[in-house]
Amino acid sequence: MASAINPIIPGFAPDPSVQRIGDTFFLVNSTFHLFPGLPIYASKDLVNWTLIGNAINRQSQLSLRLSDTKLHPQEDGTVMLATGGLFAPTIRHDTRSGKTYIINTNVVHPEDNGEDIPQNFIVETDDIWSDNWSDPVYFEFLGIDPSIFWDDDGKAYICGSRGPGPMTTISLFEADLSTGEKLSEEKTVWKGTGGIYPEGPHIYKKDGLYYLLISEGGTFKEHMITIARSESIWGPYEGHEKNPILTASGTDNYVHCTGHCDIFQDSDGRWWGACLAMRMRGSRFHMGRESFLVSGNWDGEWPILDTVEVSSSHKFKTDVVKATRSGLDWLYIRDANLSDHKIEGSTIRLTPSKKDLAQWQEPVSFVGKRQRKLEGSASVSVAVPKAGSVRAGLVNYKDEHRYARIWYDNSSKSVCFEVVNNAKKINRQDQEQVADDIEELRLLIEYTEEKLVFQYEEEQGVTKTLGIVDTEELSNADFVGPVIGVFATSNDESTQDIAFTKFEIDQ
């Protein structure tokens, strides 16, 4: 078994955690402000991955309304974009009970701009293939990135990054996973090696010793993985003298920002790590944080992880990531009004929302899919509305601060283009008139690693370019990645559904 293709989950796929159950590997990612949340992928060979479900797949499970993106200016003049919502999950399987658990944090941004509220919770299932996950069981923990560890005696422990940052610490306590009740006092077990934001902890036990693997240095260019060990689960933990065991910091590697790792064994006993990383071509890294596989070994006293590399083999795959059934990969923004979204095959009908993509307080009529490939295209045909002040189009979206889109504006009878990045103070627009009697408009986005090209067809076969976006314009230090989808908004009381047909995206 070997990985011929990296990233293993391309596109918007940060903070991977992996659990092997029998002969199958299961991987879960963060989703922040998008619903459904916490996608679960399955693979038997660590190469071909299938989306089998989402652990947060019912809006009744929790609310993502207060998961806006905050702008944090940095000392170097750049801006970090921090999105709330579903942070780094961990997936673990209990062989005793047969249950599979995902433990996670929903970070709530209070409307009064107070301190972030981490709502930590556990969901479980008796059958990971069923896509039937429990309602969240909440537990008290003032931090993020919780992880589960069972000791040999069956006791369950939760470790996490206790905040606020940047000098967080790693805490540990025994817990009842069925109720969330703490069964012990919470104890700080490690402060890391000195890097900022010690987080993303996982505990492993090997040869009678407890190993604590964490991330440090923040989630951008100084991201790194460090490890410590102890004879007792409660510590003291001694850091490895060769820390960090994984990082791209200080290099000019194409695959950069490597970190937030979960290590595991295959059925042959070989060791692997699943980590996040970013493909960075200079100042262009529009795809954001993706899931990569790194080989390693544990032949000595400490685990060793190899350099994370990328493969171009994705270009030869028709489907980079498959899904077990249609509809699993659709994404909505926060607490969307799902009744305003009707999807049948490649036809989508949206009831226009009163609010647009540039805000987070109210729902927006939008549905899309992750951009999986560096090079590809997306397109859709829009049935031109005949009444109301409606805007309906195609967008490459990250959050309320960053998107690039092309749409038909019924009030001006024109096709419009816009690129917005508030973190870089970018707001550029253009528009062109189209015929008053047009019935349908074809909208297209062609994309490469360097640029996004926004086009439209008023007449079949006659393609016009309205806007070009350098991917640097949408590249930031952030948490999320691009999602390509359709949207419909209105400035009046229009309730007529907008029909989008032949929605296609290279996946």
From TrEMBL:
Keywords: Glycosidase, Hydrolase. SUPFAM superfamilies: Arabinanase/levansucrase/invertase (SSF75005), Concanavalin A-like lectins/glucanases (SSF49899). CDD domains: GH43_XynB-like (cd18617). Residues 326-505 form the Beta-xylosidase C-terminal Concanavalin A-like domain. It holds the Pfam family Glyco_hydro_43. The keyword Hydrolase applies. The active site is at D15 (proton acceptor), E199 (proton donor). GO terms for biological process: carbohydrate metabolic process. GO terms for molecular function: hydrolase activity, hydrolyzing O-glycosyl compounds. The record marks D145 as: Important for catalytic activity, responsible for pKa modulation of the active site Glu and correct orientation of both the proton donor and substrate. Belongs to the glycosyl hydrolase 43 family. This is Glycoside hydrolase family 43 protein.
